[in-house]
Amino acid sequence: MSNSTPFPKSSVGALETNKVLRNTYSLLAMTMLFSAAMAGLSMFLNIPHGVAFACSLVAIGLVWFVLPRVEESSMGILVVFAFTGLLGVGLGPMLQSYLSLANGPTLVATAMGGTGVIFLALSAYVLTTKKDFSFMGGFLMVGLIVVFGAAILNIFLSIPALSLAVSSGIILVMSGLILFDTSRIINGGETNYVRATVSLFLNIYNIFTSLLHILGIMDE
Amino acid sequence: MDMPMWMKITSALVMGYFIVRMIPTAKDWLKNGPKGTSKEWLTTSMLLGGVVLFVAFLIVLVRSS
């Protein structure tokens, strides 16, 4: 979720909105493909967990500290590709460990398809109804804080039930964020397609990893 | 797979930093952000309920395969 233009009031023309939407989905599609390719490369090269973890940290650093400075320029696009590519590399070892399970390929394919269906269905709903979901902002931010707080606890406690609850919470919050972010684009609250792409990419990425985690636990 | 301790501590620090960054923004949204009507919340609940049902369906699908 970006922290720009906090409370949107539609002052942007329909033409501008369509342009932002089109650019966002084009960049999102390209970065998804790039990230998937980097995840494939990461698995092929058998990158160690430590390196993958470091790549994910660098990706987070890019979004927090570099992107806000360059998001209005063409450098922003380069940073988005670097960010999504690094997250793809970070995903490699996790995918590898799931794929090595007996039912692994089914789990990964189901999580991938499921994420696609959730994203497309929620986006299609917002795009067709053009409803404004900005009222969810406070609720979603509190949801994120609660889920991340529980995730920190579970890093050290490693309780399977809490882990399942955190993943479920992430899926719900990220689904809400898809509604929120998409409605911000079509209602003029988000006018920067680089920022919009990063938000939607993170929503999809988190739904995919959490869904894979839930399916992995429930399959055991 | 169990994470090494340095990864656990780093993950916790990153998430903790994220929470610290989010708190003022969340407070601002709660105080000044637009408020939804009960109808809007009902629609949202139904959509998120649909996601929950879909995930439950995927779990059944995976377990039966």
Helices and strands in order, then pairings?
The complex is a heterodimer of chains A (about 220) and B (about 60).
Chain A: H1 14-44, H2 49-70, H3 75-99, H4 104-129, H5 137-157, H6 160-186, H7 193-219
Helix pairs in contact in A: 1-3, 1-7, 2-3, 3-4, 3-7, 4-6, 4-7, 5-6, 6-7
Chain B: H1 5-32, H2 38-64
Give a quick summary of the entry.
Chain A has 220 residues and is mainly alpha-helical. Chain A is built from seven helices and no strands.
Succession of helices and strands of chain B: HH
Oligomer status? heterodimer
Residue runs with pLDDT of under 50 for 5 or more positions of chain B: none
Number of separate helices of chain A: 7
Mean pLDDT of chain A: 93
Largest sheet of chain B: none
Radius of gyration of chain A (CA) equals: 17 Å
Distance between the termini of chain B: 24 Å
Task: Describe the protein's architecture and organization.
- The complex is a heterodimer of chains A (220) and B (65).
- Chain A is mostly helical.
- Chain A has one domain (14-219).
- In chain A, 81% of the residues lie in helices and 0% in strands.
- Chain A contains 7 helices and no strands.
- In chain A, helix 1 (14-44) crosses helix 3 (75-99).
- Chain A is globular, with a radius of gyration of 17 Å.
- The two termini of chain A are 33 Å apart.
- Mean pLDDT of chain A is 93; it is low at 1-5.
- Chain B is mainly α.
- Chain B has one domain (5-64).
- In chain B, 85% of the residues lie in helices and 0% in strands.
- Chain B has 2 helices and no strands.
- Chain B has helices at 5-32, 38-64.
- Chain B is flat and about 45 Å long.
- At the A-B interface, helix 2, helix 4, helix 5, helix 6 and helix 7 of A face helix 1 and helix 2 of B.
Distinctive features:
heterodimer; A: 220 residues; 7 helices; B: 65 residues; mainly alpha
